[in-house]
Every structure is written in structure tokens, then in C-alpha cells.
Hints:
4 domains; four-stranded antiparallel sheet; three-stranded antiparallel sheet; 45% helix; alpha+beta
Amino acid sequence: MNRAISILVLPFVAVVALLIMASVYIVDVREKALVMRFGEVVDVRENPGLGLKVPFIDQVVRYDARILGIPTPPMEVTPLDDRRLVVDAFARWQITDVVQFRRATAAGGIQFAQQRLADIVTNAIRQVMGSVPSTTVLSDDRTPLMNQIRDLARANAEDLGVRVIDVRLTRTDLPEQNLTATYARMRAEREREAADEIARGGEAAQRVRAAADRTVVELTSEARKKAEIVRGEADARRNAIYAEAFGRDPEFFAFTRAMTSYERSLKADNSSMVIKPEGQFFDYLRDDGADRANPVPAAPAAAPTEPSPEPAAEPAADEPVAPEATNREGQPLGENAGVKLTPLPESLAPPPQQESVVPAAPVE
């Protein structure tokens, strides 16, 4: 009899256990749950723990309570200045009202909500970016722009029972064809700037080079001018010395010139000369010309006497006098060029002429 009772009790216990298991459900901390009865919401569980439902009649629908992300596909937008840009974004959202979310998405759930949110975020991006220029979109600080997109998407997503937490622009770039043209234009602009810099540098170098060349010409011309002045004054002084020497003793001057000619012409490596032996060139080889010399005689020394009060007599007209070497302006030679010439050698200067004093007769 005990066996029969056990056989009858075991199925009852199994049915009771099954009913208990069917009437209890667990809500995880990462979830929000709805208890549905014949398609209507009878209970909302947003806190984790155990819950009870009518077995085999109520249905528990679970939704993710965490913050979810949704990327948007790349899209082309036209800013206010009609410059096309390629933009893609990333949005963060979370379910706030489970009942409203169930009514908006029905059986589609989170996947359907993500499709709706992608369209909402895309429309918000196009609307906001169409009202600002491309410079604002491409700037480094785009936080105000992203906040406008977030607020607009949040307002449009309230009917879904979700809250758009944040929207971030991950890429804002030009289309591929525009990007190539922009790079080519930027390269041409940089090449033009480089050419301008090179031209300005070449111009500056040319000015420096021209100034240096002008300075070289001026310095060279000034130095050549001074050199010619010194050379001309030296030649004048030399000619004066030669003229004075020739005037004192023409025979000695001719003898010196003849010796110089012999020294320059009668060398082993010179060409042969065909000259008559009795020609003028060989005069000083046949005769030294001593009999034709006419040196200036030195004045005899006079006995020391008392100086006469009479003025000194002027030199005779035929006495050679050393000429004073001056330039065209009457200045001493070499003064214009800052050169001091060597004075006339004493050997070529005329000897001092002393006056002969006749001694007075003794008075008786």
C-alpha cells in the first residue's frame, strides 16, 4: 500500500515542481524584464532578483539594460558652403522606458531599435552639418557640433523609449576625387610659394653680388688711380733726374745708356744681329768717350773770412739747378696718392757754389 501511495505522490510532486519552476523567473542585473499576458504588459521588473508569473500564461521579455553602441555607415554630407564631405559617426544609447520601447519596437527588439536609431542619427548629422560651413566640421574643436547632433537625435528618439547618451564623429574627410584634387592644389600652392622664396632669395643674392662687384670695381679703380698717380709722378721724377743728369754730362748719360743696351742685347740666348762694325751701336766698344766727358768742376775751397754784408750773388745762368718735381696742381709729386718720394740724390745735385771773397787791403 505504501508503494501505491508513493506511486501516486511522485507525479503530483513532479507537477508541483514543474509549476513552481514555470512560475518563477530571474532578472539579471544587466537586464530589464517585462511580464506579458496575452500581448499586454502586466508587470515591469527593472531591479535584479526573483519574480513570479502565471505559469504557461505569462511570458517574460528581457531587454539589455546596459549602454549600447551603434556605428553609422559613411555618408556624404553637404555643409553650408556646398563642399562635400564624407562623415561617419558612433552613437551611444540606452533603454530608459521598457514599456514604451516594447510598444515602439514590438517583436523586433534591440535590432529593430538600432536600425531606427541609425536613421535618426544620420538625419541629425545631415541636418546639423548642413547648417554650418565645412571649416567648422574640419576644425579640431568639434564638441559643440557633436552636442547639437546628440540633442537633436535624443529629441527624435524619445518615442522609442531610449535615450541617446552621446554622438561622436569618427571621421570627417573629403571624397576621394575631391581629396586628390585638393592635394594637387595644395602641392601647386606650396610649389608656387617655394618658387617665390627661391626667386626672392636669388634676387637678394643678386643684389649682394652686384653690390660686392661694384665695391670691387670702386676699390680696384681707386687703387689703380692711386697707382697710376704714383707711377706717373715717379716717372716724372725719374725723367727729371735723367734730364738733370743729361744736362750736367751728356757724354756720361750716353755712355750709361750704351752699357745698358749692351747688357740687354749681347746675351747667349738672344737672336743674331747683323750690324756694321763701324755703326754707332759699337762706338763705346771702340772708344770709352773719356775725352768728350764734361763734368761740372768743383769749386776751390776758400780761406775762412768774415762774411760780407753784401747779398749773395745769384747763380750763373749756365749753372745746372735741380728742378723741383711737382704735379699739375703745383703740389709735390706723390702727395695726392699719399706717397713720399725719395729726395734727389746728392751725387746728382749741383755742388754748392761758394762766393770768392777778396781780402781788404790793410789800412796804413
